[in-house]
Amino acid sequence: MQILPASLLDINSLRRIEQACFDHDAWPLLDLMAVLTFPDVIRLKAVDNGRMIGFVAGDTRDQGLSWIATIAVLPEYQKQGVGRALLDACESKLTAARVRLCLRTDNVSALRLYETHGYQRVDIWRAYYKDRADALVMEKVRGV
Ligand SMILES: CC(C)(COP(=O)(O)OP(=O)(O)OC[C@H]1O[C@@H](n2cnc3c(N)ncnc32)[C@H](O)[C@@H]1OP(=O)(O)O)[C@@H](O)C(=O)NCCC(=O)NCCS
After folding, report:
1. Who is most buried in 37, 61, 77, 136, counting CB within 10 A?
2. What distance in Å separates the CA atoms of residue 108 and residue 78, rounded to the nearest whole number?
3. Per-residue pLDDT reduced to its tens digit, 89-138
4. Mutate which of 3, 79, 84, 138 to test ligand 1's pocket (most atoms within 8 Å of Cβ)?
5. Is ligand 1 within 6 A of the CB of residue 28?
6. Cβ 58 under 6 angstroms from ligand 1
7. Residue 50, Cβ density class (10 Å: 0-12 exposed, 13-18 middle, ≥19 buried)
């Protein structure tokens, strides 16, 4: 498995990952195109035997606080360390002292991954998702 920069050429693979990983929370096509093209975004893909199996994006517009905008791994490749590798690789390219992300409060897999990566709960956004589920905001303070 390799972690490589992603580009607009990966749009179809990213769409498949998005649809496989997020039901009603999947990003629309325009948002996926934006995350693959906008400046100030770190975009990385995990590739196995030429197939894109995971994706992470980090938003670096704010120099003091970066956001992990999205992270996803195809279901059949989950729990094999791919998410961890993507998060490590993205964090290593961020320069902000603080990194934040948000997740559904019932997303156990993501919560475990972020907790074991040193993220702590800092806020709750009520009814953030389309189905009005709450979002947990987590933050990691780094010694950069
Ligand atoms: C969250 C997600 C990216 C994790 O990716 P992954 O490749 O499965 O994660 P890893 O295999 O690297 O696991 C990293 C850690 O997370 C934890 N973890 C992962 N899946 C877990 C699960 N289903 N249950 C409990 N813990 C889990 C483990 O603690 C693991 O630590 P370990 O390596 O010490 O065992 C993946 O589950 C996913 O794509 N989910 C759907 C999309 C999503 O919810 N994205 C996050 C939105 S905020």
Report:
1. 136
2. 13
3. 999 999 999 999 999 999 999 999 999 999 999 999 999 998 999 999 99
4. 79
5. no
6. no
7. exposed
d(CA 57, CA 66): 10
Pocket residue to mutate for ligand 1, from 25, 47, 68, 78, most atoms within 8 A of Cβ: 78
Q: Residue 103: CB within 6 Å of ligand 1? A: yes
CATH number of the CATH domain containing 23: 3.40.630.30
First to last CA, the chain: 28
Cβ–ligand 1 contact at 110 (below 6 Å)? yes
**Verdict on whether the full-model pTM lies above 0.85:** yes
Residue 144 has pLDDT above 60, yes or no: no
Indicate if the alpha-carbon torsion angle 84, 60, 12, 48 is positive or negative.
negative
Identify the DSSP state of 31.
Answer: H
Domain span at residue 132 reads 2-141
Give the pair of three-digit tokens for residue 94: 């961020």
Written as one string, the DSSP assignment of 89-103 is: HHHHH---SEEEEEE
Domain total for the chain? 1
